[in-house]
Amino acid sequence: MTGSEPDDELNPTRVYEEHTYHAAISGYNPGQKKSLQEYANLHAEDESLRRWKESLGIVPGAAPADANAPKLTIHKLALESSVLPNGSLGIQLDRPGELERLSKEPLQVPEGIEYSVMIRFSAFGPKRFAPSEAPSGFLARSGINSVRSKVVDDDGTVYADFAWSFKLVKA
């Protein structure tokens, strides 16, 4: 927003900026997609590789995975800070109705705190991002902040796309 819109002061919810983070590595090519059967038969003559694949459940003749099952599940998105009660404030994405509840009741984030964003995935350890500081002051507390979070892999597959909101409150 430029601030020149006549209703700018009357609209407490504004879109300030959009961040898209790409974890792509220059020159990285994900390669062709293969079925589990193709991976099981790939380098079949290498004994140590065969044992490693078996430890992962990749064996010739194994039942194919359910094509409709999600390959990745996002369980939680949280703000972690030592000053927050219980050390974090978050969204349980695997809890039915959580996103609907957050559309009516935004997360209450204390102003000026230093926090890290943490995402918990299905089969991986939590991913923590670099610390940031929440804005503070009267203007920062004057509205509700709408956020759209999207989790996309290198192939462009979208695993999560959801909206949520938060309100900065006095610490």
UniProtKB/TrEMBL annotation:
Keyword Hydrolase: no
InterPro entries hit by this protein: Ig_E-set (IPR014756), Rho_GDI (IPR000406), RhoGDI_dom_sf (IPR024792)
The keyword Cytoplasm is annotated on this UniProt entry: yes
Main localisation: cytoplasm
Superkingdom per UniProt: Eukaryota
Compartments where found: Cytoplasm
Alphabetical UniProt keywords: Cytoplasm
Entry-linked SUPFAM superfamilies: E set domains (SSF81296)
GO cellular component, one term: cytosol
Gene Ontology biological-process entries: Rho protein signal transduction
Gene Ontology molecular function terms on file: Rho GDP-dissociation inhibitor activity
Bilayer-spanning residue ranges: none
Sequence similarity: Belongs to the Rho GDI family.
PANTHER family according to UniProt: LD16419P, RHO GDP-DISSOCIATION INHIBITOR
Stated name of the protein: Rho GDP-dissociation inhibitor
